[in-house]
Structures are given as structure tokens and as C-alpha cells.
Design brief:
Strand 2 and strand 3 form a beta hairpin. The protein is globular and about 80 Å long. Helix 6 crosses helix 7 and helix 7 packs parallel to helix 9. It is built from 17 helices and 23 strands. By secondary structure, the chain is an alpha/beta fold. The strands form five sheets. Strands 1, 2, 3, 4, 5, 18, 19, 20 and 21 form a nine-stranded mixed β-sheet that branches.
């Protein structure tokens, strides 16, 4: 029986970090069938990969395509596919789109997106069924958000049962976000109990640190403690230290992590390869000011006494208003693309007062770019063997540029930028860099037959030109696809053909985790 696809003459990076080799790859039935010299063999399609690098498709462990709404409005996820991504993990940073017991719980997502999400599901299983119907351009797996569980259940017992049911239905783990609800005794104990359930089912736990600035070091220590006490595999999402005060603690934070790892604690990190953050403006508020529902936060901002307290708290931190760029706004689009410094001057207010006004006018739905990450720290992090690279972005197409908001360049170029620019600076060999976006995230997540070019594995494959691989997305003009990615195969089907996204197809799979491996979801 002939192969469906043969990839010939490529330099193969198998994803394990081993040295590359030249070989042909034969694909049958969606899987890699044979690797070697396939001269004379027939196939439905032959891809000549002469001068190109062949590797597993990239796996993005921190995607927000779900809560940003782009997964439903552009399910082909072009900006991810054009940089080699074959699988995304959603449900990050405490928020997921399932399970939904109370439809009103979705209102909290208004701080994340302006795109409507018409949820016609309740359980994770129903959610998978809805995803399958929309025609996915990449494979999709999901975590369950602790905040989502908290809003959809009344008691600790109900929350634990809801998580357990979701894991049985195929969720890959649980995510927590201590930024908006702190890491007090109650929230930590709730997370600990949920993490123990994830551990029981062999699933992962991902954490957004409670503080990436002034209290960065204690936040890392608290996360390590949570990993140790739960026994679960924990991944710190988009690990970074924000601001000069936190930069000095970065190496100490890594030492804390490495000491714990030496003791057997399963703790890892992912990172995005940029020096500017992309976050909600609300994240700048003091911890007590950003806690609670959207309604509760807005009520504080409207109250004169609380507003003054918030302004006073903001005055005690170094804002660098000239480095904070408004990326999106729910209502007041004219402020997009301008710095907080410029907007404050136009409003005739201090930067601190302007933050409050912007949040009120836009019902909290405002995102910013902030140049607050130290390159030395980022490079040090990327060198670590327990760190993989993820986008912390979402999949878009170019038409989103017409909506007036800006997307962080990482949504268009995180993986291209890492391979072409950051990995060389970090002194990583190409095979080492590729491992950080293929087999390592597959191992952490528990994807048993993806992330490596190996006979019997699913044929999710990326083929790129190392000479032309480049990210073209910038902070002010983000809507530009990366160049150099020639082909992406999903289960042996060509989704990116000579650099062009194949329209009218749905080669992406909904991936459901089961106790014994995983399977494609089928209703």
C-alpha cells in the first residue's frame, strides 16, 4: 500500500534533542510509518524538503484562543499554524469555557474579550462536541480553570466533584490564577485540594503567579510549596519577573525551583520570547482592588474612598507610564496604540487616576503592553532544561486587524522568534530549541504519541526554511504572519501548503485525555 505522504530529503530534528539526520518520512493513516531511504516508494503526495528542517509540530501549552474568543471566530487559527503550531492547550490562567453550570458565570469573561462566545454546552464533554463541529485548524486540548469551577459550584465538595467529572470527561488538568484572587489560606487550600485530584488522575496543574512584580520571590516560593504539598506536576505559566525590583530576585527564584526539583518536586515553567508583557490593565491594581467579580471591582472604582486608596497604592509603584501602551479597549477605541503617559496628559490627570478612569469607561476590558522584562533573565530562563516555550497568546487571522484592537506579537511570532532570534542568543542548538516546543511540552502534558518524529507517532509535522524563518509582527503592526514555515501536517493532512493556509478543511482534532493515554474526541 503506497504512502499518503512522503517527505523527502529533509534534515530531520526528531524533537528529542538528539542530533539531526537526513532521512525521508513515509506517512500512512495519519501516522508516521517509516523513516529512512524511501527512494522508489510511491505516495499520494511527495514533499521535497531539500534545504528545509523537518520536525514535530509545535505544542503551545499556554494559549488563550478560547477565552479571547478567536477559537470560535477563526477556528483555523492561522497565526498559530503559520508559525508551525499543531496543538494548543487552552483553559489557562484559571479560566476555561467548561464546565458551565451557571450561564451567568460567563459574564466574567467580558474582561478578556469583545468577541461573543455563544456557549451551547455545559460539561467538558459537551464542550468537546461543540468544538468538533466548528472545524478546527489545530488540535485543541483543554484544562479546567479554578475560577471557572469556583463560579459554577457552591461548596468545596461540589467544586471537587465538578473537577473530577471534568477530568473523567477528558480535561488535561486544572489551572489557577492567584493574580486576581490572591493566595490566601482559603484559595490556597482550595487549589491544593484540586491539585491533589489532578494528581490522582495523572493530570497537570498550571499556575499564574499571584505577583510577578514586587512580591515575585514569595509568589514563586508559594507555588513551589503548593507543588510539593500536592505532589502534582505543576507548570508556572509565562514565568517572568516584572520591573527592576523583581529582576534582582529572578536568579534566586530559579534557585528555589531547582532546589525543589532536586528534591523530587515536579515543577516546570513556560515562557514567551518577548520583553514586553501583554496583560489586563486591571492587573496593575493593588491585590485587594482587583479581587472579586467584575461588578465588585467596578463598584470599588466608582466609590470615592476606594478610588482614592487605589490611586494611592498605584503611586507607590513605579509605573513607567511612557512604557505602557494600550493594546485594546472595550469601548474607547481612540486610546488604542497610545501610551498611558500620553493619555494622562490629554485627560489632565495623573497616570494613576487615568488607570481608574480607563477601567471604568471600558468596563475593565482593557489590555496593555508593558516593556518590563529583563532580557538577561529571559535568556537565563530559556537555557533551563525544565522550561518550554509557549505563546501566551491566541490564534488570529489578518481580518482581526480591522476591529481596531492590537494583538501581542507573540500571537503571530512566538515560535518563529524563539527559533530564529532568542535560541541563538541563549546558545541553544537548533535541536535543543526544538525540543522545548515539541517533545518537552508533550511530555509535560502527557501527549503519548505526539511531539516526536518516530514511527507509530501521529504525523503532526512542521517543515520550515531556517534561512527565512522570521517573525514580522510588531507591537504597533501586529497583524503579520511569520515567514519561513513551508508546511504543517496534522495527522498526515497538509494544513499549511508551501506557506499558504489550506482553507475549507478541519484537520485539527479535539484531544480528550483518558487515564490510559488519550483519544480523539468523538461524540
Amino acid at each position: 500500500m503506497p504512502y499518503s505522504v512522503i517527505i523527502k530529503n529533509g534534515k530531520v530534528f526528531d524533537g528529542t534533542g538528539a542530533e539531526p539526520f537526513f532521512a525521508d518520512i513515509g506517512i500512512k493513516g495519519g501516522n508516521i510509518s517509516r523513516i529512512g531511504d524511501l527512494s522508489g516508494e510511491n505516495a499520494g503526495r511527495i514533499i521535497d524538503a531539500s534545504g528545509l528542517f523537518v520536525c514535530p509540530g509545535f505544542i503551545d501549552l499556554t494559549s488563550h484562543s478560547d477565552v479571547y474568543g478567536t477559537l470560535f471566530h477563526r477556528p483555523l487559527q492561522e497565526s498559530m499554524l503559520t508559525q508551525g503550531v499543531s496543538t494548543i492547550l487552552v483553559g489557562n490562567c484559571g479560566e476555561s469555557l467548561a464546565p458551565i453550570v451557571k450561564k451567568e458565570s460567563l459574564s466574567e469573561l467580558e474582561r478578556w474579550t469583545n468577541l461573543p462566545i455563544n456557549a451551547d454546552w455545559n460539561s467538558v464533554e459537551d464542550y468537546f462536541g461543540s468544538l468538533e463541529k466548528i472545524g478546527l485548524g489545530v488540535n485543541v486540548a483543554t484544562l479546567v480553570g479554578q475560577e471557572t469551577i469556583h463560579r459554577n459550584a457552591e461548596s468545596a465538595q461540589q467544586r471537587e466533584l465538578l473537577l473530577e467529572r471534568s477530568l473523567k470527561e477528558g480535561a488535561w488538568g486544572v489551572s489557577s490564577n492567584f493574580l486576581f484572587h490572591g493566595q490566601n489560606g482559603e484559595s490556597t487550600e482550595e487549589a491544593l485540594n484540586l491539585f491533589k485530584i489532578a494528581k490522582k488522575y495523572g493530570r497537570i496543574c498550571k499556575i499564574h503567579l499571584r505577583d510577578e512584580g514586587k512580591n515575585f520571590l514569595p509568589a514563586v516560593a508559594a507555588t513551589v510549596d503548593l507543588a510539593r504539598r500536592s505532589g502534582a506536576r505543576v507548570i508556572i505559566s509565562h514565568m517572568k519577573a516584572i520591573g527592576r525590583e523583581a529582576w534582582e530576585d529572578f536568579e534566586n527564584a530559579l534557585s528555589i525551583i531547582e532546589r525543589a526539583r532536586a528534591e523530587g518536586v515536579e515543577i516546570y515553567c513556560d515562557a514567551f520570547p518577548y520583553l514586553r508583557t501583554g496583560s489586563q490593565l486591571m492587573a496593575l491594581l493593588p491585590e485587594w482592588g482587583r479581587q472579586g467579580s467584575n461588578e465588585e471591582i467596578l463598584s470599588r472604582l466608582q466609590d470615592a474612598e476606594n478610588k482614592n486608596k487605589i490611586v494611592s497604592a498605584l503611586q507607590k509603584i513605579t509605573l513607567h507610564a511612557d512604557r505602557i501602551l494600550i493594546a485594546s479597549a472595550g469601548e474607547d477605541k481612540k486610546i488604542i496604540g497610545h501610551t498611558l503617559e500620553k493619555i494622562s496628559k490629554e485627560l489632565g490627570m495623573s497616570s494613576e487616576e487615568s488607570i481608574v478612569e480607563i477601567l471604568k469607561i471600558n468596563n475593565l476590558n482593557t489590555t496593555i503592553f508593558g516593556k518590563t522584562i529583563n532580557q538577561k533573565n529571559l535568556i537565563s530562563l530559556l537555557k533551563k532544561d525544565y522550561v518550554c516555550v509557549a505563546s501566551d497568546g491566541a490564534g488570529y487571522d489578518l481580518s482581526f486587524g480591522e476591529l481596531g484592537n492590537l494583538a501581542h506579537p507573540r500571537s503571530f511570532g512566538a515560535f518563529s522568534r524563539f527559533l530564529s532570534k532568542l535560541a541563538p542568543i541563549a546558545g541553544l542548538k537548533m535541536e535543543e530549541a526544538i525540543k522545548k516546543i515539541t517533545s518537552l511540552p508533550a511530555l509535560l502534558l502527557g501527549l503519548g504519541d505526539r511531539g516526536t518524529v518516530k514511527p507509530g507517532f501521529v504525523a503532526d509535522i512542521a517543515i520550515f526554511d531556517p534561512q527565512t524563518l522570521k517573525d514580522l509582527s510588531t507591537y504597533k503592526t501586529p497583524f503579520n504572519y511569520s515567514t519561513g514555515m513551508k508546511y504543517v501536517l496534522l495527522s498526515g493532512e497538509i494544513a499549511l501548503n508551501d506557506g499558504v493556509v489550506v482553507e475549507d478543511r478541519d484537520f485539527g482534532k479535539v484531544l480528550a485525555k483518558k487515564n490510559k493515554g488519550f483519544h480523539f474526541f468523538r461524540k
